[in-house]
Design goal:
Structural class: mainly alpha
Helix content: 55-70%
Strand content: under 5%
């Protein structure tokens, strides 16, 4: 099982995508902290998707 830097289980691509969509939903003005968090969520999704494609291959 893949884990995150804090040793929690890494999300699946579907879970990471859901988290990213929930975070970004609705109209907003983005603060620097929110942009940083969105970048973290996007990176988690990208890593999960890459893992799933590699596993499927």
């Amino acid at each position: 099982m893949t884990t995150t830097t804090d040793n929690s289980p890494a999300p699946t691509a579907t879970e990471a995508n859901r988290e990213m969509r929930e975070f970004a939903s609705g109209p907003r003005s983005w603060t620097a902290e929110e942009l940083t968090e969105f970048a973290r969520l996007r990176q988690a999704w990208l890593e999960a998707a890459t893992r799933e494609v590699a596993t499927a291959a």
